[in-house]
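Intended use. Records like the one below are meant for learning the mapping from a protein sequence to its folded structure. Do not use them to infer anything beyond what is encoded.
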Amino acid sequence: MIWRLPTQLILFFCFVPNTYGYSLSEHAELTRVAAESLDRCFPGRFNKRTVDSIVRANQWEDQNLLRKWARYSHFYNPEREFASLRLTSKDRIISLETKIKSRGPGPAPKKYIGEALHHVQDMSTPTHVIPVNHLWTDGFESLPTRTETQFDFGSCNDLIGQAARMSIVEIHQETAEVTLRRVMNESLRALAIGKPKTRSFKLPLLAFWNFGGEGQWGSYGIIGNAFGQELVHTDAGSIFIRNEEYLAFKQRQLQLALRASQLVLTKLYILGI
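Structure written out for the chain above:
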């Protein structure tokens, strides 16, 4: 029996779908920018020590491989079920919110908030919502961008009101739904390079990521893992997509993650933590 356990674990991890969301540095930046933006609403509440502890918890949620690969995945599709040996990202959020509400002031709720932030931020990543089994080479996630630090999120009262009306589960759900709608309905401007003439057209985002059948995982779309590539070669010919098109979409997704992060962090104020 002693020699069987490592073998079983090795086999299990070999067949568990891989998951890599934003890089750890991007998760940290999203969290810090969201916390800094809230300073005008909650002066002094998100000091460096508090933010550092939340960031560490956020990153540890990705580094805890036993929990990530054996119990809770970082995938969730709000409209489709898919076969998995693990519970979904939403199941993890439900568990974390229960813990947050059941604990009083102290370091534990901030740790749970940080862990919840990781999953909420992941829901702005298409591969985590379709979902698509992927590695760190995923085009969307590896596209270099910087989170915008200057943006208008409205009044503090509006932010607090929205955060009070929504549970963390609902924030997670809404973020996933917005990402899903964008992938299903939006497109990038592109050029079909051909002879004798080059023509412009709209390339659906579903060309990059596509759904699987009932109960199945999704996959990369008809042009494969090509998000971020300006020149894409296909059987039908070559396609040119300006880098600005890619950056604009990813920035919108980062803004979605940033807004969701603000709402989750505001829960610390609402719950008096």
